[in-house]
Amino acid sequence: MTDPASTHGGGNLAVPRRILGFAPDAADAWIVHLDCGHRRHVRHRPPLSDYPWLGDPAARAARVGAPIECGRCGRGELPDGAAAYRTTDAFDETTLPAGLRREHTLRAGRWGRVEVLAGRLRFVMPALAVDRELAAGEHAILPPELPHHVEPLGPVRMRVVFLRAPAPDLPRES
Ligand SMILES: [Zn+2]
Question: pTM of the prediction?
């Protein structure tokens, strides 16, 4: 991601996500669809990439619902094609709901973008080691299921945009 306003600066942490299914890619590679909306290319190429079960349909099916690490969630990257479905009112330091000031979490598959319109806001998301100030014009990405909260640093105007990843396009496997 090249947008510096959304860089988390929290290092390279991976987030465990659930496998929704597998779609074939080129040759020996598969695309794993995750419940965060991201996709991961996986191939069996030991010793660096060791997935001996990948070519077996039953073994793949058995792993649907199992966790796998998602590096893109760890970097706070929105899934490709994520679409906004709701935007909150603009809040200031007096109208910011208490629920956003204390730790809260988006449900699976739902993303958010905290946008600071004026002033300064503190944004804290411990799972990704994020604790930073957002200035006017900056934003932070909220991945699903990661607790976070915000705190006005003096006068501020902010809003939250909620986004959804497109449904995965998965082949039927028997
Ligand atoms: Zn992800």
Answer: 0.86
